């Protein structure tokens, strides 16, 4: 294991009825002037908006609203939010939505306390100097943003999609009620599953020696995702399935399964370049890239892939070499994506080869990517070409 320090300050509320019981108290601990942040309005259609507004009004909270946060949230919306917070002396940002709304909240929170352009933090030219408190109500199981400090913002003008985080951007509290995910459309449910599985893959493919518990924990989360994915895709109002999948998504990226290891993260870096140019759903991009990345790097440590085959996809490894099991594991991953209806190729989104060079160059602009296997520009190009 690598030496590590672990601190996750987010207070997490899971399950039915928690918003009604605890939201007002959590908000009032922080302040009375709230910026309510949300996306395209699904929270209005399924009643969550009214529920939250009533709780806040009854608690005597003054609410300012910023709706319309885009999927793959844009820097322009972040700027708008920063301005609103400053003008209205906001105490707390309450982000209600999927990962995009939560990430936008984190960027606004950092921006308000930063004396300069918040984009500099995403471009790694500066570090966050503080953040407004953020609370979240999650409506889509995917990113783990409800219990981590990271966030991803797109600068649509420069076609850049960059992630950043800081110790200041952990949500102060997050509410995860699986019923709030019942209305997530089938395709978004699938993308969410692809995203949480991708987070597990990013941790799982590390090169830190001797981390047996981490391997077992990550395999446990992956096994559960594989077991419940089809059920939740086919039965969107199956409470137990939604709850299990939601818990998997939180656990996949809240730091609990990845202490003391350094994950790979090359596929995320490549996907960000694809969605920065083509604005495709993050989870869809990951489902396309991962099997091709796996094919490309499997020789680095076939035993890890063999373990994936045996412990996640329950393949009987008797008499098979690690190399054979690695190929079986990758085929199982492909089969899983096919079964839940995830995209298979970049062409599924109408993406051709004309921007590959640019995307590959951008992916490595801060240096080589990946820790399981380091990738340079040519490697990225090879993987992107294979994914067409
Ligand atoms: N912060 C992190 O740790 C982290 C990790 C991975 C990805 N990301 C980023 O998060 C973003 C993706 O977030 P996401 O996958 O949660 O999706 P999202 O927030 O972009 O939402 C996708 C779509 O689902 C809709 N939606 C959300 N909840 C709904 C509901 N209950 N009913 C009906 N529709 C609903 C949204 O309006 C939107 O149209 C990307 O920008 C990605 O890069 C962040």
From TrEMBL:
Keywords: Oxidoreductase
Pfam families named among the record's database cross-references: ADH_Fe_C, Fe-ADH
Residue span, Alcohol dehydrogenase iron-type/glycerol dehydrogenase GldA domain: 9-178
Residues of the Fe-containing alcohol dehydrogenase-like C-terminal domain: 189-387
Organism: Alicyclobacillus mali (ex Roth et al. 2021)
Name listed for the protein in its UniProt record: Iron-containing alcohol dehydrogenase
InterPro entries linked: ADH_Fe/GldA (IPR001670), ADH_Fe_C (IPR056798), ADH_Fe_CS (IPR018211), BDH-like (IPR044731)
